[in-house]
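Researcher: I'd like a structural prediction for the single chain below. Treat it as a standalone chain; there are no partners to consider.
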Amino acid sequence: MSNSPLIKRLTKKKILVSDGAWGTQLQQQGLAAGECPEAWNLTHPEKVEAVARAYVDAGSDIILTNTFGGSRFKLEQYGLADKTSDINQIAVELSRNAAKANTFVVASIGPTGKFVEPLGDVTPDAMMAAFREQVAAHVVGGADAILIETMSDLTEATLAIRAVKAVCSLPVLTTMTFEKGSSGYRTMMGISVEQAVTTLSEAGADVIGTNCGNGIEQICEIIAETRSFTDKFLIAQPNAGKPKLVGEETIFEQSPEEFAAHVPNLIRAGANIIGGCCGTTPNHIQAIVDVVRKFSKSKEIG
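Model: Treating it as a single chain, here is the predicted structure.
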């Protein structure tokens, strides 16, 4: 793992910038409501590649892949289960095409939408097999690392980490999504930050953190709490503020400038990789890049 270029870059105490939201960018390219985003890897590859390139041009050190819903379980809802390997492999290749020489391509794996027995009807072996299928295709496509993201269930997250470890030696990044309640930040399944840190670390995650569900102010709090329990590298991908319903459309109103103003606090809280989730755009990423560059020249980052 120490030989991984991504881990080496992080070890040099460099703050890396990830990308932003993919779904809304694909919608701007013409993705219709209810359409399978991952199917576009096959049907509209040039538009998927354009999203990745926009983030590269904005200065992202890390770009993800259009595979968040790329598990067999998700794709079978669109009649695309037999295309699982192709969809995942091509997605990595498209992001790779858009990447520059120093850009890391990190393959995205989101929740399957299923629960493992006894909560659900999927066996641990079946869920792990679905993750292994995705990861194997990501490896063939040329991924530099795997990001298991937006997880609420530690069992699912752990099975995904184990699947990566079983297939390859690529770094594993894992993010959980938390909500703030009377007992502090917990996932939808009731998992605390401390529980997440402990379990994900034991499972073998190389980078841990949080994404989605919160704006950057709340993500700063979660990262600070996470840092109190671990010295691992941390990743943070906040939303562009809180969602607001306008008609039937959900929008995020935080501007790139407002978002980026909190980036120094996020770095001080302990984040090593900073990107964006819902509502963030290439402009948000460019604003993060500008702040990180200025911050990195200061004495606050070694």
